[in-house]
Design brief:
heterodimer; A: alpha+beta; Alpha-Beta Plaits; three-stranded antiparallel beta sheet; two-stranded antiparallel sheet; 10 helices; 17% strand; B: alpha+beta; Cytochrome-c3 Hydrogenase, chain B; 15 helices; globular
Chain lengths: 223, 368
Amino acid sequence: MYGLGLIKGLGITMKNLVIPSRQFNVYQYPNKRATPWDLAKINNSKPFTYIAKNPLTTIKSFVGLVNVEEKLPQHPNFRGEEFAWYDNRCTGCASCAKYCPLGIIKIVTGTSGVNSQEGQSYDLEVFDIDIGRCMFCGLCVEACPYDALHMGSGFEEAQYQRSNLVIDINKLKSAEKKPSTWFRPQLVNQGHDPISGDTADWRKVGRHEKPSQEDQSERWAKR
Amino acid sequence: MTGIRTEPVTVNLGPQHPSTHGVFRLRVTFDGEEIIDLEPVFGYLHRGTEKLAETRNYTQIVTLTDRMDYVASMSNNLAYVRTVEDLSGIEVPERAQYIRVICAELQRIASHLMATGFLLNDIGALATPLIYCFREREKILDLFEMLCGARITLSYMRPGGVFQDADQDFWNALDILIQELPHYLDELETLISKNEIVLARTRSVGVLSDEDAIDYGVTGPILRASRVKWDLRKANPYEIYDRIDFEVPIGVEGDTYDRFHVRLLEMQESVKIITQCITQIEKGSIRADVPYFIRPKPGETYQSVEGPKGELGFYLISDGGVSPYRCKVRAPSFINLTPLKKMMLGWKMGDLITILGSIDIVLGEVDR
């Protein structure tokens, strides 16, 4: 009564304002406007030596013209853009396409290739993922029996046209492979961290090795 | 003042109004500043979830349930997944049940924090309490990111368990959060619940009596604020809630303040539940051996859980195929909107926003 509650509330606000460990983390997006103190911290020097050495940057940063890239903390389990697809792990079984709730993965296989599982030579001709309609639920990655398809950990993939959002087989082949550790315990055990920029080749990502070409033809083609 | 001719005015609140928490429209008739009639209009966010469910298989529907109540995806997943398990007779491993309960309770805290923050924002405590609530919610969302790779559209649960075990990062972060949370919640309570302005705006505003609450089928914190001690976690213990000791907080009067205060108390209880779960959980399997394409025997079932907003239930009919013949959702937000007229008639324009905020509706769930 008599405004005591108001004063108590204001006291809590004041506490949160003053005590450093209780302050709110404010992230500016996309880039952080850096003060001279921030710049000194980044360059591993003391603030006053930094100001004395770089007077021009200091003046610029006081006006607010110096930006520093700041990344939000992110867990390697994050499921996001840049699907990592390994063409020499993929058998074209289309489990992912069958399991996608929206049906946005298109796979066409032909007989032009040299793969010899199931006694027939075939190759993947089309592997399209329509990212514009994808909701990144990860069911395709969960369904993949050969660990050929992995989630990425990127976002901010805006494009001017919807057609640019369709990832085709060439894009997937040439893309930098930074698979997320989502639903891939073998990557967690290896200490793989896509956020810090670790890449993984096809030998690393599988639960087991893919059999060699000779073994495959022994097992399937010549039986 | 006789002699001045007055007539009632009809005002459209929404659909694009920040205080309606989505695209909800209220056609209100005012006599001066007093509400004399109102008519809720919804359906602006209708996406046909129930019909879409008929064209997808039982696992794929989990992704649809995320998008219904998008501030409490975990609870939606739990309700749906439990229905499928009941329909097809799947036994869930114990560890998976514990993880599910921990997730559902974390989600309850996140959802209640959001409800509290936006209620106070609507009252006019602009941004300050909302930011306090979002600071804690952010930590819970970070936990979900560690657990399942997403923050809002989680799709973490699968029929038969959860898809991925929680790693050590998660348990460490959860321990820290559980130690911090009671303190933060106390802070929120001292910040707000003794505040004279909040008390003046919410005390005895929009009272819903216990008979009315039961008659209208209201569930969740709103029912408990009206002095009815009904919680599905106690009344019909699902998962492992029968092994856990917790209280069901109830209100005093059934007004807006009680609805807000019951949520604060419930968050404290959720912290207790999570603490007990962490001590009881044991190592083991996290997913029953369930095929990708589940084909339950023909039949029907209804299962419900106590979601953050009330009794969230799924009714599924199977015809023996890979996708359900019919999927009906009992959405708590939708049914909690029905006594709106009872609560609001006779109150002023400013109280309208307060009462609507105290119901905590999410339009994704109302319209589905």
